[in-house]
Amino acid sequence: MRTKRKMGCLLVLLLAMAACCTVPVLLSAEAGQQGGGQGGPVDAKAAGIPERMLSAYTAGATQVTEHVPGCKGMRWQILAGIARVESNHAAGRQTSPAGDISPPITGPRLDGSGAGGNTSAFPDTDGGRWDGDTAYERAVGPFQFLPETFRSYGKDGNGDKTISPHNADDAAVSAAVYLCGGGRNLNNREELRAAVYVYNHSQAYVDDVVAGIDRYDSLGASPNVPSGNAGVVVAAALAQQGILYSWGGGGPSGATTGICCSPGGQDGRTVTGFDCSGLTQYAYAKAGITLPRTAAAQAGAGKRIPASAGYSALQPGDLVFYGYSPTSDASIHHVGIYLGDGKMINAPRPGQRVRIDPVTALSDYAGGARPL
Fold first, then answer.
1. According to a count of CB atoms within 10 Å of the terminal CB, is the N or C end of the chain lower?
2. Cα distance between residue 141 and residue 122, in whole Å
């Protein structure tokens, strides 16, 4: 039946209460490479960046060409370079799974007194909405936007239909749009420096930011792709990074529109992309293996790896499952493809894109399967 075939990872048993791949925002540590970006996966701890902030930077870099099609070379390292100087990656704050930062980050009052090194007065433009100051402006959020600037460049980075400089995803994609201008080529060193100078008219600031970008660039490395059919599966899945999540979307032939509707309200019929089990179907089809459509059914494909065996039992190319009960395949609601080194390629949820995530990002690990 067509409806059942297109269910995505949706559990038929739990149709009324649970959604396939609709899980908390996962913490990503992969590089956004849309628009000519460079670099590959990097360990957030090695970079000194909280995982949730790094996820925001990678997503922002990926999304920028939706808003500035001519932009080239935007990558997470550029956004990290800015945020390191502006807020030290929201140091001392908590960032929720949805990207909201608390307490909010606000800079000194820009009243011309010299606080924060600024001697020009900036009268309030947002009625205190974002900076809590109804008399003068204060820079806000992890990227320290002036409210007036954010009002012009602010974008919805996480698909929740609200735009806030205090949301990591919104702030990151907004900073990417601002840095890209009318369509800069940020692979060009001089254009990169010019973009950073527009952000803050100080050559010392530019030098500081670019030095950070260079360090982050040096951390990138391409994921190891295994040999044989496992390598075919991994390479096929990795090639889909940046493609939108679509509820019920995707299958053996590639990205497709999906079905209506996810518990969060996404109408997959309006989005071309993959849900979690649509992505795994596609990757395994490249190796000549046909998987069932739902995550729960895919648990029966090949050798089952019990959750009790731990993550160390997984091999690159294996399916990685998450379920409400680790011993019940019927409870499985999500699936990814293991890459090795504790990471998986994953289509996480509506509003997000195919990306690399740590396998520990979800707490209800339900083992794996080895169809190869």
1. N
2. 17
**pLDDT per residue over 316-349, tens digit each?**
999 999 999 988 999 999 999 999 988 899 999 9
Contacts by residues 90-93 (CB-CB < 8 Å, ≥ 24 positions apart): 90/50, 90/53, 90/142, 90/168
> Can you count the helices (H) and strands (E) in the chain?
11, 10
Task: Please tell me the distance from the alpha carbon of residue 150 to that of residue 41, in angstroms, as a whole number.
Answer: 29
Sequence-distant (≥ 6) Cβ neighbours of residue 290 within 8 angstroms: 252, 281, 284
Residue 105 amino acid letter = I
Provide the angle, in degrees to the nearest 10, between the axes of the packed helices 76-87 and 203-219: 130
Both structure tokens of 223: 């994921």
Residue 228, helix vs strand vs coil: helix
92: left (phi over 0), alpha (psi -120 to 50) or beta: left
Tokens of 263: 């518990």
Tokens linked to 260: 């209506």
Q: In whole numbers, what is the pLDDT of the chain averaged over residues?
A: 85
Dist. CA 168–CA 145, nearest whole Å: 12
- pTM of the predicted structure, to 2 decimals: 0.55
Q: Record the tokens describing residue 280, joined without a space.
A: 């795994």
3-state secondary structure (DSSP) of residue 334: strand
The two tokens of residue 371 are 């169809």
CB 111 within 8 A of CB 124: no
